[in-house]
User: Which sequence fits this backbone?
């Protein structure tokens, strides 16, 4: 029984001590001070190339905030700011008035959370005054992004500017200019008001997006207070590239601190702090010097172009270039009208699009690699099988000619085996092969090589391309032999991304591994992610991933070693054989390159000009790199793409 | 029935309703104001109070021995709810790794609250006629019945609620007739295992709270903040308080969770020592009345149920208030009747309902004349007077 009432006695004694004996002290302390909560920004993780070169990092900048209850002469403050930074006085005035408005709104209306739905409701007079009193003592942002020097100027003259408080903020920097821009991506503010903007903020808020990027220690009250104050509205998100795919890992967790301000002395004391957690660093597989070299090579083409270099053994993407590029720095808020005109609205060159994965192209002759593998594996041809090229496929089928049978050349290849057929890119040879394989299996083989599906690289906006399939014909068109013949030589409805082509060449280049198996090499672009303490962070669940975390997860392809060797020999002949389509380019002088040219004709008349392709791997013995070069409407693959590729291979040889 | 209603303990009901009213009053001050009237916390709490009262009345209708009949089923039902809760993912709270309630849209249901009642009923059922509580092995089964829901609640994780289960078990064992020596041994074992649990069972944040409690000054930047804020707020209330809706816990010196686990802070700040101690006294009166009911109830199941309810509510009340005034570390335990929260309030009313039901129908202490009459036939059979007192309650119950 005593046990039941003893605790009540303890509690009453404690309450007496707190309230009666020390009550006055507590009350005095409480009335003399005012508390506020501030969010502390987390440094966004860096993006590095494979050697540790910094591609993106955060630096601290400072926001100038004013406390309405304490600021004495706004005009003189504004003059100083204008002198120091050149920001127009009018803009400062405007911002000042909007702060006053915001504080008034916040006092007049409460935002309440009802079962996950936010509502705005009017406050009573008495509560309005209470909130107004406390909000007048809260710093509101007047000027964003001052440098350390500018901040110091004000801080050293604190007595002249009462009510001025600085808070830290982070700013993204992209020190490498345009290099690897499509891989890195860029960050952008939340979409603003009118139609789209308000919705994005509210959608994310409802999904607890900002809450999840906050230290777990923050209480609901403090979070709601910061939210109502508009703290998160200035947040930035990764909008594309790795910045987008790894946004959550990069962002880190905001911290917060609770500051007690002595209302008389205006001294501040931190009474609680939860430090922010910096985001993880993301190390890419990209090799910056190689990337820069490839970019300069493509720039010489003076047309939209793409190049990808992969390590065939690991699937690591060493360079991924889509030209033209842009400077990620210029796309940071606020974006100037010039930038909008030159980058965002350039409909002709479309610099923002990552052509390596987000654009699909007609492939043309490079597809003959698939046709060859399918013919060999389905047992329809052997490396020595010969077909007779008369310059056209069949007498009674118009339109299917070999390029050598075209009106201006009027020749024929004669009876040739696989190696020669590939070297001279004989259409008849591969149409005959594909005709024997039939459309279904041929399309299936293309699917095995990854056409018609995303590669799974860790970049946003990847398209699948189009793989025509007899079992899934396009509406209103039954599959016919014509479709099969078109597919054999990469014509017709087939559309691919350059990365899919690099993936296929890497697969042939990797060939049969120690286990006697052939696997589809999956490209990936992130080497590792590490948090600020150096621990490796699991990047699972961060956007698209390969279909397995390692090589064991790569798709097995039922290809014999003999087939690999035959196709490699054929691709070697393209460069080495005196009649090979790439023999005239500088590639022939280089150390053992295998590859295939392609001139993907978009129309019979020649305008627009065909896409110029070259894709392959090197060295021929124990291949290490695969690559693809595409120049949009560049002309002939052998004359435009192959020479560009030669410059890239030269670099690879030097690098090795 | 009419005689039963007359025999009901009206003061108990009155106290429960008063405390609920005080809770709503405090909520009106603590919760964010100005919400649309139909969904404001004040209205929700009022609706839940009415709902709870309805459930209470409903529980009074059947004889409370019905609950004895269904005790195991109710208990298993609670366990199932707890398991379902643990395996269901996607509740709004799941993102922070906490799964404490089912979201039913309009309101949420917290199975750990219901489990308290399930446990009390099943323990009362198991312990009511145990003559062998003398043996230490007899304590294994009740302990197992308690550990099962406690573990499930601990996994949510909700340490505070899980810990409430164990004092309930101890006191019910004691009243059920277990030897004090065993109970003391059990207490010693539990105390000895505290350091082990501290290192291996507790989560980081729980460990931090205990560290903070032992040395609050060490980390105003940690969990100590909440405790410190709440003590400052209570202290600043002084003798008579700042007056209703004048708490600075909302505004310049916010106290986190002030409408929930820390509602007592608002009361103590706004109504001072006078108001705060009054609330403590109201609780003490409630407990005293429950003790009285348990005391005069002979029927063992009812007696054990009242004991269990009393212990559960008392421990929760003391732990909550002691936490706000800085006598105990911060645990997420609500203040019965007063804290904001539907399940908590309805559960408190259900418990009160059980107590009232027992008080209405308990077998009264018999006067000596009636006792003699009852014993008469037994004596005639040849039984001696000694030991008959033990048998008498059962016989009388059977005779009714």
Assistant:
């Amino acid at each position: 029984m005593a046990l039941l009432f003893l605790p009540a006695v303890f509690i009453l004694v404690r309450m007496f001590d707190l309230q009666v004996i020390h009550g006055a002290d507590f009350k005095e302390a409480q009335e003399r001070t005012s508390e506020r909560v501030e969010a502390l920004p987390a440094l966004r993780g860096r993006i590095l190339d494979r050697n540790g070169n910094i591609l993106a990092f955060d630096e601290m900048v400072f926001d100038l905030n004013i406390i309405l209850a304490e600021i004495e002469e706004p005009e003189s403050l504004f003059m100083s700011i204008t002198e120091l930074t050149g920001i127009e006085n009018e803009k400062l005035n405007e911002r000042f008035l909007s702060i006053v408005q915001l504080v008034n709104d916040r006092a007049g209306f409460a935002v309440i959370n009802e079962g996950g739905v936010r509502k705005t409701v009017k406050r009573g007079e008495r509560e309005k005054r209470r909130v107004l009193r406390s909000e007048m003592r809260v710093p509101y942002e007047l000027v964003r992004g001052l440098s350390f020097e500018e901040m110091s100027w004000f801080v050293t003259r604190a007595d002249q500017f009462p009510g001025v408080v600085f808070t830290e903020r982070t700013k993204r920097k992209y020190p490498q200019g345009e290099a690897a821009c499509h891989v890195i991506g860029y960050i952008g503010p939340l979409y603003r008001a009118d139609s789209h903007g308000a919705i994005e903020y509210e959608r994310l808020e409802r999904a607890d997006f900002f809450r999840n990027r906050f230290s777990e220690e923050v209480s609901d009250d403090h979070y709601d207070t910061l939210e109502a104050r508009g703290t998160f509205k200035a947040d930035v998100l990764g909008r594309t590239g790795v910045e987008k795919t790894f946004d959550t890992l990069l962002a880190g967790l905001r911290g917060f601190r609770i500051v007690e301000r002595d209302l008389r002395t205006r001294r501040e004391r931190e009474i609680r702090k939860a430090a922010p957690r910096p985001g993880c660093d993301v190390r890419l597989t990209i090799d910056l010097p190689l990337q820069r070299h490839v970019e300069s090579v493509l720039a010489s083409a003076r047309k939209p172009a793409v190049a990808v270099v992969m390590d065939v053994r690991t699937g690591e993407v060493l360079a991924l270039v889509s030209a033209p590029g842009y400077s990620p720095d210029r796309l940071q808020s606020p974006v100037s009208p010039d930038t909008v005109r030159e980058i965002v609205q350039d409909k002709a060159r479309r610099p923002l699009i990552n052509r390596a994965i987000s654009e699909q192209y007609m492939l043309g002759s490079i597809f003959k690699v698939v046709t060859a593998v399918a013919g060999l594996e389905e047992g329809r041809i052997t490396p020595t099988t010969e077909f007779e090229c008369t310059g056209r496929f069949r007498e009674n089928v118009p339109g299917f000619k070999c390029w050598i049978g075209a009106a201006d050349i009027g020749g024929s290849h004669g009876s040739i085996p696989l190696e020669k057929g590939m070297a001279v890119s004989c259409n008849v040879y591969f149409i005959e092969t594909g005709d024997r394989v039939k459309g279904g299996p041929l399309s299936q083989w293309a699917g095995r090589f990854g056409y018609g599906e995303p590669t799974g690289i860790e970049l946003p906006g990847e398209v699948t391309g189009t793989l025509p399939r007899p079992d899934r014909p396009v509406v209103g068109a039954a599959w016919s032999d014509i479709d099969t013949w078109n597919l054999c030589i990469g014509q017709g409805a087939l559309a691919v991304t350059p990365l899919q082509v690099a993936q296929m060449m890497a697969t042939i280049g990797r060939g049969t591994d120690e286990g006697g198996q052939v696997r589809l090499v999956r490209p990936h672009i992130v080497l590792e992610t590490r948090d600020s303490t150096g621990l490796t962070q699991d990047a699972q669940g961060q956007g698209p991933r390969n279909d397995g975390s390692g090589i064991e997860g790569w798709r097995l392809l039922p290809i014999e070693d003999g087939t690999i060797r035959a196709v490699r020999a054929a691709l070697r002949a393209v460069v080495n054989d005196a009649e090979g389509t790439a023999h005239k380019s500088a590639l022939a002088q280089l150390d053992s390159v295998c590859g295939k040219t392609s001139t993907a004709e978009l129309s019979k008349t020649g305008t627009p000009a065909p896409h110029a392709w070259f894709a392959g791997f090197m060295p021929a013995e124990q291949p290490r790199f695969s690559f693809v070069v595409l120049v949009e409407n560049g002309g002939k693959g052998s004359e435009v793409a192959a020479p560009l590729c030669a410059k890239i291979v030269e670099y690879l040889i030097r690098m090795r | 029935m009419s005689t039963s209603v007359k025999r009901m303990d009206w003061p108990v009901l009155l106290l429960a309703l008063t405390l609920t009213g005080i809770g709503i009053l405090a909520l009106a001050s603590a919760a964010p104001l100005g919400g649309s009237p139909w969904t404001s916390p004040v209205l929700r709490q009022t609706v839940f109070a009415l709902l709870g009262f309805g459930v209470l009345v409903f529980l009074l209708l059947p004889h409370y021995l019905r609950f004895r009949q269904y005790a195991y089923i109710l208990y298993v039902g609670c366990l199932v709810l707890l398991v379902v809760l643990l395996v269901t993912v996607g509740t709004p709270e799941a993102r922070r790794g906490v799964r404490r309630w089912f979201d039913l849209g309009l309101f949420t249901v917290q199975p750990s609250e219901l489990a308290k009642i399930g446990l009390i009923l099943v323990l009362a059922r198991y312990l009511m006629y145990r003559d062998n509580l003398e043996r230490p092995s007899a304590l294994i089964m009740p302990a197992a019945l308690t550990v099962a829901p406690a573990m499930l609640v601990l996994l949510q994780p909700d340490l505070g609620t899980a810990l409430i289960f164990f004092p309930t078990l101890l006191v019910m064992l004691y009243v059920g007739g277990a030897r004090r020596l065993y109970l003391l041994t059990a207490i010693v074992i539990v105390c000895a295992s505290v350091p082990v649990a501290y290192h291996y069972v507790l989560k980081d944040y729980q460990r931090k709270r205990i560290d903070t409690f032992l040395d609050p000054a060490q980390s105003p930047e940690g969990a100590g903040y909440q405790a410190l804020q709440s003590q400052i707020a209570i202290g600043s209330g002084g003798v008579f308080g700042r007056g209703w809706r004048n708490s600075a816990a909302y505004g310049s010196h916010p106290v986190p969770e002030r409408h929930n686990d820390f509602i007592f802070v608002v009361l103590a700040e706004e109504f001072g020592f006078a108001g705060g101690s009054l609330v403590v006294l109201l609780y003490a009166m409630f407990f005293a009345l429950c003790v009285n009911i348990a005391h005069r109830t002979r029927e063992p199941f009812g007696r054990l149920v009242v004991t269990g309810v009393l212990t559960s509510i008392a421990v929760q009340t003391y732990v909550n208030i002691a936490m706000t005034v800085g006598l105990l570390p911060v645990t997420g335990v609500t203040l019965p009747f007063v804290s904001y929260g539907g399940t908590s309030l309805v559960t408190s009313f259900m418990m009160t309902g059980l107590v009232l039901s027992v008080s209405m129908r308990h077998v009264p202490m018999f006067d000596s004349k009636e006792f003699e009459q009852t014993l008469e036939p037994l004596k005639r059979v040849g039984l001696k007077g000694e030991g008959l007192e033990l048998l008498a309650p059962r016989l009388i119950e059977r005779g009714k």
Summary: Residues 540-548 of chain A have pLDDT under 50 and may be disordered. The CA atoms of residues 322 and 535 of chain A lie 33 Å apart. The longest helix of chain A spans residues 2-21. Chain A touches chain B through 57 residues (CB under 8 Å).
